[in-house]
Amino acid sequence: MVSPVRMHLQTTKRGLYETFDFRGVSADGRYAFTLKHTVFKPWLAQGSVEVAIICFDRKTAKTYCIAEQEELSASHEKQLNKAEHWESCLFSFASGSFFEINRDVLRGKLHTEQGSVSWSLGLQRRDEVLHQFPQELCYQLPWPRHKVQMRDCFIKYQGKIQFADISLAGEFLGTNHHYWGDGYPYEFAAAQCNRFVEDTGAFFYGFSTRLAVGKLFKTPYLSMASLKLRGRWYNFNEVKYSFRHTLEALDNYRWRISYMNADYGLDVEVNGSNPRMLPWAGWHAEQTIGERAVVKSTAFAKGTMTLYKRGSMAVIAELSSDAVELKTLLPENLAEGQGFWVIP
Question: Distance between CA 236 and CA 32 in Å, rounded?
Answer without folding.
Answer: 28
